[in-house]
Here is the input.
Amino acid sequence: MLNKYKLSNVNKDTFFMIDLDGTLINSSKLHYEAYEKVFQKMNKTFVDFDKWNNIINSKHFDDYMKDVMEFSIQDINKIKQDKLNEFQNIEEIEIIKNADMFVTKLNELKINYCVVTNTGKKTIEIFKEKQPMLKSINNWIVREDYQEPKPNSECFELAIKKYGNNSKNIVGIEDSEVGFKALKDVTPLIFMVDNYNVFKNNDCYIFNDYIQLLNLL
Here is the structure.
């Protein structure tokens, strides 16, 4: 799916905007298990994993807790704090296949890039302690930096303004439908990690191993 595409002058003219959860690290199950433990302590039933994936692929989970579970903002903030505490017990975080090689190459070639995520700063700091690759990334846009979460494009617009350096080529890398929707208003050049449903219905590229992207640099 990628062999027809080649970035020109990538090290001079390109700015990569890369999602975090499900795009660089395999963290969806970690988020799910942390929420599940919080709900167990509340004596409430949590959604199953398949439904969880369907929810986060299409909307922010805060919205689901507010609109469907009917939690108040105060309750949601308490749940998220308890979830953060659960993250302290994580032993390791897996990366998406060869994402570390891709990040290393971007750093070596001094290619401009930024991680743009709906995840909050405190969670990311925990993740950095568990996954060394994340410590090598300098530019971040995190949940506290903007008002509206994905699928709103505000976070990517901010990344371009803050770190884009007027790059001619802007490339987005995401894994979810909500991420794709946020990206499509700011760049036509989008790579999806192993999400065939988004790929088959939209104008984007798909890959399942960062080696495929390395071959484009």
Remarks:
- DSSP finds eleven helices and six strands in the chain.
- The longest strand covers residues 169-174.
- Residues 10-27+95-214 form a domain with the Rossmann fold fold (CATH 3.40.50.1000).
- The chain has two domains: 10-27+95-214, 28-87.
